[in-house]
Amino acid sequence: MRNLVYYIALSIDGKIAGPDDEVEFYPSSEDYMNWMNTEFPDVLPSHFRAQLGLSDTPNPNFDTIVMGRRTYDPGWKNGIPSPYAHLRQYVFSRSLESKHPDVEIVSTDPVAKVRELKREDSDKDIYLAGGGEFAGQLLGEIDKLVIKYYPVVAGAGRDGFGSTFNPTLFDLTEVKTFDGGNAVLYYDKKK
């Protein structure tokens, strides 16, 4: 069975974005960006991969992405209806209609669909792109966390795991630090 991995950027105070979905306040260094592009090129939207010369780079981690509508909407509104063309794309929404043949809109229970995807025979994991409320709904299915902490306090904004109280234990398995204060923490769900 493959894993559902929540690969997420967080401010020190646990925000994935500002109140109006701002993310440009996240500081990073060249060291950190090089690591991200080398270790996780599969999480970059296809148009960014092309700009960075990574279009032909194999996907080392994931072959499937799941996301909520809030995560999908910005690309679609900017003329990018298939933001992760290098992955199988599932967008969970009860009201959205398909905008591209390579993007499957799922209006049924996200937990059931994710369980189905996890049972597939693949050596690649499933990338949970978010957002926070959607990740909160899937918290029971998340097997691994890759949390990219940015050295900034947002103060207000979108929570990384939604607003439902649901304590879930994870074991810290690895920590990477970078110039400029960025840190990446890897967690596995406690068994």
From TrEMBL:
InterPro entries: DHFR-like_dom_sf, RibDG_C, Riboflavin_Biosynth_HTPR. GO terms for biological process: riboflavin biosynthetic process. Transmembrane segments: none annotated. Residues 4-181 form the Bacterial bifunctional deaminase-reductase C-terminal domain. GO terms for molecular function: 5-amino-6-(5-phosphoribosylamino)uracil reductase activity. This is Bifunctional deaminase-reductase domain protein.
